[in-house]
Protein backbone atom coordinates (compact mmCIF):
# COMPACT_ATOMS: atom_id res chain seq x y z
CA UNK A 1 0.00 0.00 0.00
CA UNK A 2 1.09 3.55 -0.77
CA UNK A 3 2.48 5.46 2.22
CA UNK A 4 1.99 9.22 2.16
CA UNK A 5 3.56 11.76 4.51
CA UNK A 6 1.54 14.99 4.79
CA UNK A 7 2.93 18.14 6.45
CA UNK A 8 0.94 21.24 7.47
CA UNK A 9 -2.07 19.04 8.17
CA UNK A 10 -4.00 21.87 9.84
CA UNK A 11 -3.37 24.53 7.21
CA UNK A 12 -5.95 25.38 4.55
CA UNK A 13 -4.60 22.99 1.92
CA UNK A 14 -3.32 20.41 4.40
CA UNK A 15 -6.76 20.07 5.94
CA UNK A 16 -8.32 19.30 2.55
CA UNK A 17 -5.45 16.94 1.64
CA UNK A 18 -6.29 14.81 4.66
CA UNK A 19 -9.61 14.16 2.91
CA UNK A 20 -8.43 13.85 -0.71
CA UNK A 21 -5.35 11.67 -0.10
CA UNK A 22 -7.13 9.16 2.10
CA UNK A 23 -8.27 7.00 -0.84
CA UNK A 24 -4.70 6.62 -2.09
CA UNK A 25 -3.19 4.85 0.88
CA UNK A 26 -1.94 5.24 4.42
CA UNK A 27 -1.59 8.95 5.26
CA UNK A 28 0.65 10.10 8.12
CA UNK A 29 -0.49 13.68 8.69
CA UNK A 30 1.73 15.87 10.87
CA UNK A 31 1.46 19.42 12.15
CA UNK A 32 4.03 21.66 13.76
CA UNK A 33 3.71 19.95 17.15
CA UNK A 34 4.63 16.56 15.65
CA UNK A 35 7.36 17.87 13.36
CA UNK A 36 8.72 21.40 13.49
CA UNK A 37 9.95 22.10 9.97
CA UNK A 38 12.49 24.59 11.25
CA UNK A 39 14.25 21.57 12.80
CA UNK A 40 16.07 19.68 10.01
CA UNK A 41 16.96 16.74 12.26
CA UNK A 42 13.30 16.22 13.14
CA UNK A 43 12.38 16.18 9.43
CA UNK A 44 15.09 13.64 8.59
CA UNK A 45 14.10 11.38 11.46
CA UNK A 46 10.42 11.49 10.49
CA UNK A 47 11.09 10.56 6.86
CA UNK A 48 13.62 7.87 7.76
CA UNK A 49 11.28 6.26 10.26
CA UNK A 50 8.12 6.31 8.14
CA UNK A 51 9.76 5.78 4.70
CA UNK A 52 6.88 7.25 2.65
CA UNK A 53 6.41 6.67 -1.09
CA UNK A 54 5.04 10.21 -1.40
CA UNK A 55 5.70 13.39 0.60
CA UNK A 56 3.07 16.12 0.24
CA UNK A 57 4.24 19.45 1.65
CA UNK A 58 1.65 22.23 1.96
CA UNK A 59 3.25 23.53 5.18
CA UNK A 60 4.69 27.00 4.77
CA UNK A 61 5.32 30.33 6.44
CA UNK A 62 2.47 32.25 4.75
CA UNK A 63 2.27 35.51 6.76
CA UNK A 64 3.36 37.74 3.88
CA UNK A 65 3.81 41.01 5.77
CA UNK A 66 5.34 39.41 8.87
CA UNK A 67 7.90 37.63 6.69
CA UNK A 68 9.44 41.01 5.88
CA UNK A 69 10.63 41.32 9.50
CA UNK A 70 11.05 37.57 10.04
CA UNK A 71 13.12 36.44 7.06
CA UNK A 72 15.05 33.76 8.93
CA UNK A 73 11.99 31.84 10.09
CA UNK A 74 10.32 32.26 6.69
CA UNK A 75 13.43 30.97 4.98
CA UNK A 76 13.81 28.01 7.35
CA UNK A 77 10.26 26.78 6.63
CA UNK A 78 9.84 27.84 3.00
CA UNK A 79 13.31 26.97 1.73
CA UNK A 80 15.57 24.99 4.11
CA UNK A 81 12.88 22.49 5.15
CA UNK A 82 11.96 21.89 1.51
CA UNK A 83 15.58 21.11 0.73
CA UNK A 84 15.77 18.61 3.61
CA UNK A 85 12.51 16.93 2.52
CA UNK A 86 13.92 16.72 -1.01
CA UNK A 87 17.22 15.23 0.15
CA UNK A 88 15.48 12.58 2.23
CA UNK A 89 12.99 11.83 -0.57
CA UNK A 90 15.83 11.44 -3.05
CA UNK A 91 17.52 8.84 -0.81
CA UNK A 92 14.43 6.62 -0.69
CA UNK A 93 13.00 7.36 -4.15
CA UNK A 94 9.90 9.12 -2.81
CA UNK A 95 7.86 11.59 -4.86
CA UNK A 96 7.61 15.11 -3.39
CA UNK A 97 4.56 17.26 -4.08
CA UNK A 98 5.25 20.86 -3.08
CA UNK A 99 3.34 24.14 -3.40
CA UNK A 100 4.48 27.58 -4.44
CA UNK A 101 3.00 30.96 -5.20
CA UNK A 102 2.20 33.72 -7.68
CA UNK A 103 4.39 35.94 -5.45
CA UNK A 104 7.52 34.46 -7.11
CA UNK A 105 6.70 36.86 -9.98
CA UNK A 106 6.99 40.66 -9.97
CA UNK A 107 3.53 41.12 -11.51
CA UNK A 108 4.68 43.42 -14.30
CA UNK A 109 3.83 41.04 -17.15
CA UNK A 110 0.85 41.72 -19.42
CA UNK A 111 -1.30 38.59 -19.33
CA UNK A 112 -0.99 35.31 -17.43
CA UNK A 113 2.41 33.95 -16.37
CA UNK A 114 3.49 30.58 -17.77
CA UNK A 115 5.85 28.13 -16.10
CA UNK A 116 8.60 29.38 -18.45
CA UNK A 117 8.40 33.03 -17.44
CA UNK A 118 11.30 34.39 -15.40
CA UNK A 119 10.69 34.81 -11.68
CA UNK A 120 11.45 38.01 -9.78
CA UNK A 121 9.97 38.00 -6.27
CA UNK A 122 9.29 41.38 -4.65
CA UNK A 123 8.74 40.17 -1.08
CA UNK A 124 10.61 38.07 1.48
CA UNK A 125 7.78 35.51 1.35
CA UNK A 126 8.06 35.30 -2.46
CA UNK A 127 11.85 35.08 -2.34
CA UNK A 128 11.83 32.28 0.26
CA UNK A 129 9.19 30.34 -1.71
CA UNK A 130 11.33 30.65 -4.85
CA UNK A 131 14.36 29.50 -2.87
CA UNK A 132 12.33 26.45 -1.82
CA UNK A 133 11.49 25.63 -5.44
CA UNK A 134 15.13 25.87 -6.50
CA UNK A 135 16.37 23.87 -3.50
CA UNK A 136 13.91 21.05 -4.21
CA UNK A 137 14.93 20.93 -7.86
CA UNK A 138 18.60 20.79 -6.88
CA UNK A 139 18.13 17.71 -4.67
CA UNK A 140 17.31 15.59 -7.71
CA UNK A 141 14.21 14.17 -5.99
CA UNK A 142 11.28 13.29 -8.23
CA UNK A 143 8.93 16.18 -7.63
CA UNK A 144 5.91 18.25 -8.59
CA UNK A 145 5.71 21.94 -7.72
CA UNK A 146 2.20 23.38 -7.92
CA UNK A 147 2.23 27.16 -8.04
CA UNK A 148 -1.09 28.58 -6.96
CA UNK A 149 -2.65 31.88 -5.80
CA UNK A 150 -5.03 33.48 -3.31
CA UNK A 151 -5.85 30.23 -1.51
CA UNK A 152 -9.22 30.10 0.22
CA UNK A 153 -10.60 27.29 2.36
CA UNK A 154 -13.30 26.66 4.93
CA UNK A 155 -10.62 25.66 7.45
CA UNK A 156 -7.95 28.25 8.26
CA UNK A 157 -7.43 31.95 7.72
CA UNK A 158 -7.87 33.74 4.38
CA UNK A 159 -8.94 37.01 2.72
CA UNK A 160 -12.60 35.95 2.31
CA UNK A 161 -12.96 35.26 6.03
CA UNK A 162 -11.23 38.55 6.85
CA UNK A 163 -13.74 40.40 4.66
CA UNK A 164 -16.75 38.70 6.31
CA UNK A 165 -15.36 39.67 9.71
CA UNK A 166 -14.57 43.30 8.75
CA UNK A 167 -17.95 43.74 7.02
CA UNK A 168 -19.65 42.96 10.33
CA UNK A 169 -17.49 45.51 12.22
CA UNK A 170 -17.16 48.55 9.93
CA UNK A 171 -19.38 50.94 7.97
CA UNK A 172 -16.75 51.45 5.31
CA UNK A 173 -14.03 49.29 3.75
CA UNK A 174 -11.22 50.28 1.38
CA UNK A 175 -9.92 47.43 -0.78
CA UNK A 176 -7.23 47.48 -3.44
CA UNK A 177 -8.67 47.12 -6.94
CA UNK A 178 -5.46 47.15 -8.99
CA UNK A 179 -4.03 43.74 -8.04
CA UNK A 180 -5.43 40.99 -10.27
CA UNK A 181 -5.43 37.26 -9.58
CA UNK A 182 -7.50 34.16 -8.96
CA UNK A 183 -8.90 32.89 -5.67
CA UNK A 184 -8.21 29.14 -5.63
CA UNK A 185 -9.92 26.79 -3.24
CA UNK A 186 -7.90 24.54 -0.97
CA UNK A 187 -10.25 21.70 -1.90
CA UNK A 188 -9.50 22.12 -5.61
CA UNK A 189 -5.75 22.00 -4.91
CA UNK A 190 -6.21 18.91 -2.76
CA UNK A 191 -8.24 17.18 -5.48
CA UNK A 192 -5.68 18.06 -8.17
CA UNK A 193 -2.93 16.72 -5.92
CA UNK A 194 -4.72 13.40 -5.36
CA UNK A 195 -5.24 13.05 -9.11
CA UNK A 196 -1.58 13.70 -9.86
CA UNK A 197 -0.34 11.29 -7.20
CA UNK A 198 -2.68 8.64 -8.60
CA UNK A 199 -1.44 9.26 -12.16
CA UNK A 200 2.11 8.96 -10.90
CA UNK A 201 1.37 5.71 -9.12
CA UNK A 202 -0.45 4.23 -12.11
CA UNK A 203 2.39 5.17 -14.48
CA UNK A 204 4.99 3.72 -12.12
CA UNK A 205 6.92 6.89 -12.94
CA UNK A 206 7.27 5.76 -16.62
CA UNK A 207 6.72 8.74 -18.93
CA UNK A 208 5.42 10.79 -16.02
CA UNK A 209 6.09 14.52 -16.46
CA UNK A 210 7.56 15.83 -13.25
CA UNK A 211 8.27 19.51 -12.65
CA UNK A 212 6.47 22.80 -12.14
CA UNK A 213 2.81 23.43 -12.92
CA UNK A 214 0.59 26.44 -12.42
CA UNK A 215 -2.60 25.34 -10.63
CA UNK A 216 -5.32 27.96 -10.15
CA UNK A 217 -9.08 28.13 -10.67
CA UNK A 218 -10.65 29.64 -13.79
CA UNK A 219 -11.44 33.33 -14.38
CA UNK A 220 -9.76 36.39 -12.90
CA UNK A 221 -10.70 39.09 -10.40
CA UNK A 222 -9.14 41.72 -8.14
CA UNK A 223 -9.21 41.97 -4.35
CA UNK A 224 -11.96 44.63 -4.37
CA UNK A 225 -14.28 42.70 -6.67
CA UNK A 226 -13.59 39.53 -4.69
CA UNK A 227 -14.39 41.32 -1.39
CA UNK A 228 -17.68 42.65 -2.82
CA UNK A 229 -18.65 39.17 -4.01
CA UNK A 230 -18.02 37.57 -0.63
CA UNK A 231 -19.70 40.35 1.38
CA UNK A 232 -22.85 40.31 -0.78
CA UNK A 233 -23.08 36.54 -0.31
CA UNK A 234 -22.77 37.05 3.45
CA UNK A 235 -25.51 39.69 3.38
CA UNK A 236 -27.79 37.42 1.33
CA UNK A 237 -27.21 34.59 3.83
CA UNK A 238 -28.45 36.84 6.66
CA UNK A 239 -25.06 37.33 8.28
CA UNK A 240 -24.44 40.61 10.14
CA UNK A 241 -23.13 43.12 7.59
CA UNK A 242 -22.70 46.80 8.58
CA UNK A 243 -21.09 48.02 5.39
CA UNK A 244 -23.36 49.15 2.54
CA UNK A 245 -22.47 47.92 -0.97
CA UNK A 246 -21.38 51.41 -2.10
CA UNK A 247 -19.22 51.82 1.03
CA UNK A 248 -16.82 49.09 -0.14
CA UNK A 249 -14.41 51.47 -1.81
CA UNK A 250 -11.96 50.51 -4.57
CA UNK A 251 -8.51 51.93 -3.86
CA UNK A 252 -5.05 51.65 -5.39
CA UNK A 253 -2.04 49.80 -4.03
CA UNK A 254 -0.47 53.18 -3.26
CA UNK A 255 -3.47 53.99 -1.01
CA UNK A 256 -2.86 50.83 1.07
CA UNK A 257 0.78 50.70 2.16
CA UNK A 258 1.94 47.32 3.50
CA UNK A 259 5.36 46.02 4.59
CA UNK A 260 5.45 43.52 1.69
CA UNK A 261 5.06 44.49 -1.94
CA UNK A 262 2.45 42.40 -3.82
CA UNK A 263 2.31 41.78 -7.58
CA UNK A 264 -0.19 43.86 -9.61
CA UNK A 265 -0.68 40.87 -11.89
CA UNK A 266 -0.87 37.46 -10.20
CA UNK A 267 -2.48 35.61 -13.11
CA UNK A 268 -1.04 32.13 -13.76
CA UNK A 269 -1.63 30.28 -17.05
CA UNK A 270 -2.83 26.72 -16.46
CA UNK A 271 -2.72 25.23 -20.00
CA UNK A 272 0.21 22.97 -19.06
CA UNK A 273 -1.62 21.38 -16.13
CA UNK A 274 -4.89 21.04 -18.04
CA UNK A 275 -3.29 19.52 -21.14
CA UNK A 276 -0.80 17.24 -19.41
CA UNK A 277 -3.29 15.70 -17.01
CA UNK A 278 -6.62 16.29 -18.78
CA UNK A 279 -7.98 18.31 -15.88
CA UNK A 280 -10.80 20.86 -15.90
CA UNK A 281 -10.30 23.86 -13.63
CA UNK A 282 -13.63 25.31 -12.47
CA UNK A 283 -14.26 29.06 -12.19
CA UNK A 284 -13.02 30.65 -8.95
CA UNK A 285 -16.60 31.58 -7.99
CA UNK A 286 -17.66 27.94 -7.79
CA UNK A 287 -14.85 27.18 -5.35
CA UNK A 288 -15.62 30.28 -3.26
CA UNK A 289 -19.38 29.49 -3.34
CA UNK A 290 -18.73 26.03 -1.96
CA UNK A 291 -16.70 27.47 0.92
CA UNK A 292 -19.31 30.15 1.64
CA UNK A 293 -21.97 27.42 1.70
CA UNK A 294 -19.94 25.82 4.48
CA UNK A 295 -19.07 28.87 6.56
CA UNK A 296 -22.05 31.23 6.20
N1 LIG B 1 -2.49 30.98 1.44
C1 LIG B 1 -2.35 31.44 0.22
O1 LIG B 1 -3.02 32.40 -0.18
C2 LIG B 1 -1.40 30.79 -0.74
C3 LIG B 1 -0.62 29.73 -0.37
N2 LIG B 1 0.28 29.19 -1.26
C4 LIG B 1 1.10 28.07 -0.86
O2 LIG B 1 0.24 26.96 -0.72
C5 LIG B 1 0.68 26.12 0.37
C6 LIG B 1 -0.46 25.91 1.35
O3 LIG B 1 -0.88 27.16 1.84
P1 LIG B 1 -2.03 27.28 2.95
O4 LIG B 1 -2.62 25.95 3.20
O5 LIG B 1 -2.89 28.41 2.58
O6 LIG B 1 -1.15 27.74 4.20
P2 LIG B 1 -1.61 27.87 5.73
O7 LIG B 1 -0.91 29.08 6.26
O8 LIG B 1 -3.08 27.75 5.84
O9 LIG B 1 -1.00 26.56 6.39
C7 LIG B 1 0.38 26.40 6.48
C8 LIG B 1 0.66 25.35 7.54
O10 LIG B 1 2.07 25.27 7.70
C9 LIG B 1 2.32 25.07 9.05
N3 LIG B 1 3.64 25.51 9.48
C10 LIG B 1 4.13 26.77 9.51
N4 LIG B 1 5.36 26.78 10.04
C11 LIG B 1 5.65 25.49 10.39
C12 LIG B 1 6.75 24.85 11.00
N5 LIG B 1 7.84 25.54 11.40
N6 LIG B 1 6.70 23.52 11.18
C13 LIG B 1 5.62 22.81 10.80
N7 LIG B 1 4.55 23.35 10.22
C14 LIG B 1 4.56 24.69 10.01
C15 LIG B 1 1.27 25.88 9.77
O11 LIG B 1 1.12 25.39 11.08
P3 LIG B 1 0.69 26.39 12.26
O12 LIG B 1 -0.71 26.80 11.94
O13 LIG B 1 0.82 25.52 13.45
O14 LIG B 1 1.67 27.52 12.21
C16 LIG B 1 0.06 25.67 8.90
O15 LIG B 1 -0.70 24.58 9.34
C17 LIG B 1 1.92 26.83 0.93
O16 LIG B 1 3.06 26.29 0.31
C18 LIG B 1 1.76 28.27 0.49
O17 LIG B 1 3.01 28.92 0.36
C19 LIG B 1 0.41 29.65 -2.54
C20 LIG B 1 -0.35 30.70 -2.97
C21 LIG B 1 -1.35 31.34 -2.11
C1 LIG C 1 -7.52 43.55 4.95
C2 LIG C 1 -7.35 44.38 3.71
C3 LIG C 1 -6.48 43.99 2.72
N1 LIG C 1 -6.32 44.75 1.60
C4 LIG C 1 -5.41 44.31 0.53
C5 LIG C 1 -3.97 44.03 0.92
C6 LIG C 1 -3.53 43.10 -0.17
O1 LIG C 1 -3.12 43.85 -1.30
C7 LIG C 1 -4.79 42.34 -0.49
C8 LIG C 1 -4.83 40.92 0.07
O2 LIG C 1 -4.49 40.96 1.44
P1 LIG C 1 -4.03 39.67 2.24
O3 LIG C 1 -3.08 40.11 3.27
O4 LIG C 1 -5.21 38.90 2.62
O5 LIG C 1 -3.32 38.86 1.12
P2 LIG C 1 -1.93 38.12 1.14
O6 LIG C 1 -1.65 37.60 2.48
O7 LIG C 1 -0.91 38.92 0.45
O8 LIG C 1 -2.31 36.91 0.19
C9 LIG C 1 -1.29 36.16 -0.38
O9 LIG C 1 -0.91 35.15 0.53
C10 LIG C 1 0.20 34.42 0.10
C11 LIG C 1 0.45 33.33 1.13
C12 LIG C 1 0.16 33.98 -1.30
O10 LIG C 1 0.87 33.05 -1.70
C13 LIG C 1 -0.62 34.79 -2.29
O11 LIG C 1 -1.10 34.02 -3.39
C14 LIG C 1 -1.75 35.55 -1.68
O12 LIG C 1 -2.87 34.74 -1.42
O13 LIG C 1 -5.89 43.09 0.03
C15 LIG C 1 -7.05 45.93 1.42
O14 LIG C 1 -6.92 46.61 0.39
N2 LIG C 1 -7.93 46.32 2.40
C16 LIG C 1 -8.10 45.59 3.55
O15 LIG C 1 -8.90 46.00 4.43
MG1 LIG D 1 -2.18 37.00 4.43
TrEMBL record:
What's one GO MF term for it? dTDP-4-dehydrorhamnose reductase activity
Give the enzyme class: oxidoreductase
Cofactor(s) required, per the database record: Mg(2+)
Gene Ontology cellular component terms for the protein in this record = cytosol
UniProt domain RmlD-like substrate binding: residue ranges: 3-294
Q: Which reaction does it catalyse?
A: dTDP-beta-L-rhamnose + NADP(+) = dTDP-4-dehydro-beta-L-rhamnose + NADPH + H(+)
Q: Recorded E.C. number(s)?
A: 1.1.1.133
Q: How is the cofactor bound?
A: Binds 1 Mg(2+) ion per monomer.
Q: Which Pfam families does the record associate with it? A: RmlD_sub_bind
Please name the pathway: Carbohydrate biosynthesis; dTDP-L-rhamnose biosynthesis
Q: Name one GO biological process term.
A: dTDP-rhamnose biosynthetic process
Q: Which UniProt keywords apply?
A: NADP, Oxidoreductase
Q: Which family does it belong to?
A: Belongs to the dTDP-4-dehydrorhamnose reductase family.
Q: What does this protein do?
A: Catalyzes the reduction of dTDP-6-deoxy-L-lyxo-4-hexulose to yield dTDP-L-rhamnose.
State the name under which the record lists this protein.
Answer: dTDP-4-dehydrorhamnose reductase
**Which organism encodes this protein?**
Pusillimonas minor
Gene name in the database record: rfbD
